[in-house]
Amino acid sequence: MSDARFGLRRGRRKLQTNNKDSEQLLRKHRPDYKLLVLMTALLVLGAVTIYSISPGVTALKGLSENFYNYKQLVAISLGFIAFIAASFMNIRFWKRLEIPLIVFAAIVAVSVRAFGAPINGAYRWLDIGGMSFQAAELIKFALIVWLAGFLARARINNTISNSSTLKMVGAVGLIIIVVVAGLQSDLGSAGVMIAIIGFMSFVAGMSMKKLILVSGIVIILLGLAIISSPYRRERVSTFLNPTADCQNEGYQACQALITVGSGGLVGRGLGKSVQAYGYLPEAANDSIFAIIAEKFGFLGTTITIIMFLWLFKRIKMVAEYAPNDYSRLLISGILTWLSVQMIINVGAMIGLLPLKGITLPFVSYGGTSIIFVMMAVGLVFQVSRYTDLAMYEGSTKAPRVHRMKSSGPVVRRIWSRSR
Amino acid sequence: MRSYIMNKSFLVSTHSRIRLLYVVIILMLGTFIVRLFYLQVVRYDYYQNLAQEAQLKRYEIPATRGTIFASDGENSVPLVLNERRYNIVADPQIITNKEQTATKLSEVLSLSKDNILKHLNAKNRYEILAKKQTTAVKKRIADMMTQGTITGIFSKTVSQRVYPNGSLASQVLGFVNDDGVGNYGIEQALNGVLSGKNGKVRALTDSRGVPLLASGKNVSIDPVDGQNITLTIDIAMQKQLEGILKKGLEHAKSKSGSALIMDPHTGAIKAMANLPTYDPTNFTKVKDPQVFNNATVSSPLEPGSIMKTLTTAAALDLKAVKKDQSFFDPSFYIVNGFRIHDIAEDGGARTRTVSDILQYSLNTGATWLLMQMGGGEINKQARDNWYNYMTNHFQFGKITNVEQGFEEPGIIPNPDKGYALNLKFANSAFGQGMSVTPLQMASAVSAIVNGGTFYQPTLIAGYTGLDGIFVANSPKVVEKNVVSKEVSKIMIGFMDNIVETNNFAAIRKGYQVGGKTGTAQVARPGGGYYDDIFNGTYVGYVGGNTPQYVIMVRVDRPKLRGYAGSQAAGPIFASLSNMLIDNFSVEAISR
User: pLDDT digits over B282-335, tens only?
Assistant: First the structure.
């Protein structure tokens, strides 16, 4: 494996030019509107799916028929406000928010425990004026913002020192164990956070040795957490053999598989979902991917996955060509967050991963999740204005020959063409 | 490889590390697409079948069961109606507040909270909490659902039979069990006519079983409601008969008995009752299912001396004896080594007439009649003749096809098979060693007094179909030449004679009332007969120039001095005949 193949040479160049001091030198340019288009497409897919199963899921809960539609539309509207705000806010602004945000998240998490109502033995929600607030989403977001700043500062000579690593592991471990796994019994969110931390540290240049060591410890802790709670043990044993007990513990896993499988190649059609009528639990929330599979078939699921992949690719490119370490780490964290949630959610629906109670970003019903993921994309959108355009555009559009020589005149030509 | 990975030059740049994440994402999502292809395309049939198994449900839409009416002169009045009731059902999967729901429900339903909670904690999605609740209960539960104090409770409409006249004619009617199937009586015999045909629905449903409108696979066939039935039972006569029977049995100190009134010219049963009876509304509380039986059609008995009426009619019809013929009665006959004798009061050996056989109820006389059927002795010819009359003329030994559940045929001895055949047949000539139901006896006597036509006994006046049009049930002739018209006339006279001399209470000036008593020994379960237990029977008619009603009475094991037939059954017959003359426009003799 040569350096060139991993883009090592270009990477090194980037690191040399994009120092903290060079921030003000970056030119603002057109943002990546594909981010907005793909996000909107996924939001529409989710809203339409929720709308079409609304009679089924509301009837069984005795709610008014437009209950979910209304709340989802409100959430998307709020989400767009959050998106626009984040997309115009200077990236440096988030640096200032690091500590306040993480403190605020901690306070919310504790109040969820104190005032929230437990659902399935887990404290996850806080009711605020009729709208419930899912604390885990805020914590994830705050974690990414804080970690990006911390790692950017700690990053010296492309790596993280031992003392900084310990500091980070300590702080992060406290957040995860106390706030999430302990107070809220939400192992799914804890898993997403661990993935975010692990990958952000990895991007920041933490050595492989340390990463392997720390992840080894995390795996052991995770194992202990699973063994200690019968609720989690049950979930894992259900995952290992989901169809063994379709009537009780494995009910949701079995119904998810049935829902997905019964979609066939082209699906039953938009308004034709039957599984949403009480058979598949959480049809509008965690299980919405299965409903999409039932309605639109293999073609629909493939297109959905490609849309996600496309969005991830655009985010990845923003991260790759972000103007500085801080924004790169921020975007990497967001990419990890969205992709890991998507993978855990879809993997559970198709029987490849255990059910974790994780929403499908943009698509699932749920105000908090919608608002925070849209804000996150807004952040990516903002950073996409300052990317190193040469590399950014060149990597997809320009022939390999041009990319290798990406400097000055060639870059400008490509840029003006696309404009 | 290991040393390469640990080498600091590997994945040093942030770019390559970000790309590595992206490669992992691509690999994962690629795996997902492969997995989705397997689930949705390769295994589609399997999952589609699993989904259908749960989603596609077959339902029956219950047809409305036909109602039952009784005649009331020209009109009809309801005996059985339907009422809407509601089964209260829970779907435990969607109940969010089980404790509160159970507490609230226990206030409305007559169930304990713990009992309800047990249902609410079931893994099932369809738990029946209470059956056949009233509209008021259903409404209170619906209100609580809309208020949100309880969750996941539904009601399912069911139909329940109601009886405006209480236990009147309950054994004739029968009842409908919880599965909607008729048991006993009319409800059983005409279950098909009453129940109609249930509609069918095959539909994709939600998890509660509510059909989804969006599905194109729904199939539905409308139900065809059952027909309404009007009985030949006259409600006023039925009420009177039940009252008279009750009083008569109390007087006779008997626990059970039956009576029926029949129109001999059509076979229509005008009133029919047995005691003890039951309340069909609370049929589930009955301890002894024996009371469900309509004993007049389901409990054959040895009829005793009333049989001599038929023996006389048969001998006359065969022209084996003449109406005025007299013969020497030796006071006993020895048949197959057994002594057949008369009762003590009859005064020993002397010359008797055919008419005397009925008037004094002579066992020897009946035996003599049988001998005449064989040309002077009991032989195969006598047995065959008598057997032919019993089975082919009087239709004994087979069911009458009256519209009742559990009808019994009774037993008639075989003329060629078995031992002591001559004795068996001699006994059968005076109603022992064979059995018939009161209805069979009434039908046979009807044929004798109506000029010789055996009508199938029936309880059905007509049907009212879905179009609302009443279709009358026409009388069915089973056998035209039971006896000749002349014999019929002679028998009417003979029976009238008996009442004139024996049952003074029944005599009414200007009317013709005829009848015959029977006091039958009761068979011991191990064989032979009890010495001191008898059943009293009475069969007769009431009318003017022609008999208008035939009455049959049976009193089981009365505890009275004297003969059961005359002391226990006779007074009931007299009350019934007087009741008919007083209230039911029996035509007087006009000459």
Answer: 888 888 888 999 999 999 999 999 999 999 999 999 999 999 999 998 888 999
> How many Cβ atoms from other residues are within 10 Å of residue B167's Cβ?
15
Which pLDDT band, with edges at 50, 70 and 90, does B92 fall under? confident
Instruction: Give the span between the Cα atoms of B425 and A86, in whole angstroms.
Output: 112
d(CA A283, CA A273): 10
How many residues are given for chain B? 591
Instruction: Name the class of domain B60-231.
Output: alpha beta
- pLDDT recorded at residue B345: 64
SS (H, E, C) B53-103: HHHEEEEEECCCCCCEEEEECCEEEEEEEEEEEEEEEECHHHCCCHHHHHH
Tens digit of each residue's pLDDT (9 = 90 or more) over B361-388: 899 999 999 999 998 889 999 999 999 9
Nearest to A61 among B5, B94, B205 (CB): B94
Give contacts of B 117-176 with A, CB under 8 A.
123, 145, 148, 151
Burial class (CB within 10 angstroms; exposed 0-12, middle 13-18, buried 19+) of B226: buried
Identify the H or E element spanning B455: strand B454-455
For chain B, what are the domain ranges? 2-42, 60-231, 234-583
Q: Quote the ipTM score.
A: 0.84
> CA triplet B274, B275, B277: central angle to 5 degrees?
95
3-state class (DSSP) for residue B407: coil
SS3 B335: strand
Q: Name which of A234-248, B142-156, B281-295, B387-401 the model is least confident about.
A: A234-248
pLDDT band at B591 (very low <50, low <70, confident <90, very high): low
pLDDT for residue A296: 95
What type of residue sits at position B128?
I
| CB pairs A-B closer than 8 Å | 175
Closest CA to B90 of B111, B75, B63: B111
B437 confidence band (pLDDT: 50, 70, 90): very high
Residue type, B7: N
Q: From the list A264, A328, A352, which residue is nearest B48 (CB)?
A: A264
- Residue A5, Cβ density class (10 Å: 0-12 exposed, 13-18 middle, ≥19 buried): exposed
SS3 annotation, B502-554: HCHHHCCCCCEEEEEEEEEEEECCCCCEEEEEEEEEEEEEEECCCEEEEEEEE
Name the burial class of residue A215, with classes exposed (0-12), middle (13-18) and buried (19+) by CB atoms within 10 angstroms of its CB.
middle
pTM of the model: 0.63
Higher-confidence position of A99 and A116? A99
CATH number of B234-583: 3.40.710.10
Nearest 5°: the CA angle B94, B96, B101 is: 105
**A203 vs chain B: nearest CA distance in angstroms?**
5
Do B39 and A302 make contact, defined as CB atoms within 8 angstroms?
A: no
pLDDT average, residue stretch B469-484: 92
Residue range A185-240, pLDDT digits in tens: 567 787 888 888 888 888 888 877 888 888 888 788 778 877 777 776 776 676 66
In A, minimum Cα distance to B12 occurs at: A205
Inter-chain CB proximity A262 and B215 less than 8 Å: no
> In this predicted model, what pLDDT tens digit does every residue of B500-521 receive, in sequence order?
887 777 788 889 999 999 988 8
B31–A302 CB contact, under 8 Å: no
What phi-psi label fits residue B558: left (phi over 0), alpha (psi between -120 and 50 degrees) or beta?
Answer: beta
* DSSP 3-state of B207: coil
Distance from the A83 Cα atom to the nearest Cα atom in chain B, whole angstroms: 24
